[in-house]
Design brief:
Elements: E1 2-12, E2 17-26, E3 29-34, E4 43-46, E5 51-54, E6 56-61, H1 74-83, E7 86-91, H2 102-115, E8 119-124, H3 138-143, E9 148-150, H4 159-169, E10 175-178, H5 183-186, E11 191-192, H6 195-200, E12 204-205, H7 207-224, E13 228-230, H8 236-247, E14 252-256, H9 258-262, H10 266-271, H11 285-297, E15 302-303, H12 312-315, H13 332-341, H14 348-363, E16 378-388, E17 407-417, E18 420-424, E19 427-428
Parallel strand pairs: 1-4, 1-5, 6-7, 7-8, 8-9, 9-10, 10-13, 11-12, 13-14, 14-15
Antiparallel strand pairs: 1-2, 2-3, 5-16, 16-17, 17-18, 18-19
The structure holds N-carbamoyl-L-aspartate and zinc ion (2 copies).
The site of N-carbamoyl-L-aspartate has 11 residues, from loops.
Binding site for substrate: 62-64, 94, 279, 310, 324-325
Family: Belongs to the metallo-dependent hydrolases superfamily. DHOase family. Class I DHOase subfamily.
Enzyme class: hydrolase
Amino acid sequence: MAFLLKSAHVVDPVAGIDGIVDVKIENDRIAEVGENLSADGAEVIDLSGKVLVPGLVDMHVHLREPGYEHKGTIESETRAAAKGGMTGVCSMPNTDPVTDNGVTVEYVKSVAEREGHCRVFPAGAMTRGLKGEIISEMGDMVAHGAVAFTDDGHGVQGAGMLRRAMDYGKMFDKVFMSHCQDDDLVGEGQVNEGVVSTRLGLLGWPAEGEEIQIARDIAIARLTGAKLHIQHISTARGLDLVRAAKEEGLPVTCEATPHHMFLTEDAIGETYDTALKVNPPLRTAEDAAAIIEGVVDGSVDAIVTDHAPHAAWEKAREFELAPFGMTGIEASLALVNTNLVKTGKIGYARMVELMSIAPRRILGLDPVSIAAGSVADITVFDPEVTWTVGAEGYESKADNCGFAGTEVCGRATDVFVGGKRTLCDGVVC
Ligand SMILES: NC(=O)N[C@@H](CC(=O)O)C(=O)O
Ligand SMILES: [Zn+2]
Ligand SMILES: [Zn+2]
């Protein structure tokens, strides 16, 4: 199959392109990039007015399968990913059974190959059953295609345990991704601890509960030489710790979510909306501004969604009883376009770095580029179209999106994964 993508505004900082050119795809690869390319039998798609970038990868996504198919399936959540413009996702291991051995990694990969709408790169658990007691089958998982290790959903509570996991696992040359949460300090915390938790009468989840583990994990990365990636960073001081680690030259990276940048704890007070209950919690306006500053100055490496679908009945409970997590993969490109690009905080080249290049680099995936010979993983979006999050429902099985009702600008129109079209004019195909 061959496609000639005509007249899009192509942005790829790696290839050094920021202008209107044509892109020709033949089979799974980009065959040619240049002006006025001839079709020669290729299907011509006119992309005037659209932006074309190296395929987006969301490196923090909960697909829920196996085990929690009532929340989401590999089919439904990769469908949501395609709708959001993603060409790949890194799936979290807090499934049932936990993705902590090669067989489960293989299961996720094979279902994704059969039913998925984007590439799925599974992360494997750091400890068996996410219990923090015994190292998982790291070598087995890597042999079956795991790209990273994480106990996401829990912090690894024991520093010695983390040290042993990193010391052992670093031979596989994969990144260790940390969900930073000191259980003893956080306890049953529901929302950020401070004025808002007091006013709402909800138990507080203090910033320090995250920052203590960020500091500890950086120290253990220094001790072991393992690569460390801090997941869903949410506090100003936590980001300063990452900055200091980078200055020291440690292999430390971090990611931030749209909800920790564009929503704050203040949103919860108006509604007690359980879609706004996330882990780590929405923080203060100062924290959100600091994370955005980190995105602008390069301290934040990647933008991810931590897309965490839950069934409606699970979220339709008292705030304290509802599970943590919100969906967001269908809106993240639009939220970044609206709040960061349209406001002039970053340009498209930086957006591509945050949502496409850095996630692949951190996960050790093959790079893609808008250049002849590269694998044809491509995202195309209309940067001007306005729409309301959730107004037409979601492709995800779940609707616990904390941005529902928000008017945003920009939307993916076409996605190619290995030269195959997965989103056609806004429709998952
Ligand atoms: N972020 C969340 O609030 N929830 C995630 C777990 C996690 O990412 O820690 C989930 O699995 O639902
Ligand atoms: Zn987490
Ligand atoms: Zn997560």
